Amino acid sequence: MGQPVVIELKRAELNVLQQQNIKVYYENQVVGNYFADIIVDQVILEIKSAEGLREENKAQLINYLKATDKEVGLLLNFGRTPEFKRVIFTNDRKE
Question: Structural domain of residue 88, as residue ranges?
């Protein structure tokens, strides 16, 4: 589902990374991994194709933001009714 988005972002000459591995740390040790659908510069994009965005979609994106230095994420849903949601988790809240 994310491929057309990637094509358009690259056409706009933006720096686009796909399926980026995000390491999860606990006490300076890697304890897991997340995979962000798309990262464009300092924004994480999470692509969905569902009836609607759900709270767990937002929670997933917040976890990605917590595990990185990124502060802004976008949930994009290309389901029956397209929708988007911007999520912000500032670096000063990450510890």
Answer: 3-93
Please report, for the domain that includes residue 66, its CATH number.
3.90.320.10
User: pTM for this structure?
Assistant: 0.89
Whole-number pLDDT of residue 79? 92
Specify the 3-state DSSP secondary structure of 3.
helix
Element (H, E) at 92: none
Q: Which amino acid is at 94?
A: K
What is the count of structural domains for the chain? Answer: 1
Listed in order, strand segments (DSSP E) in the chain are: 16-26, 29-40, 43-48, 72-77, 83-88
Residue 93, both tokens: 């809240």
Asked whether the predicted pLDDT for residue 40 surpasses 80, the reply is: yes
Contacts 24+ apart (CB under 8 A), 33-39: 34/63, 34/64, 34/67, 36/64, 37/2, 38/2, 38/5, 38/6, 38/9, 39/70
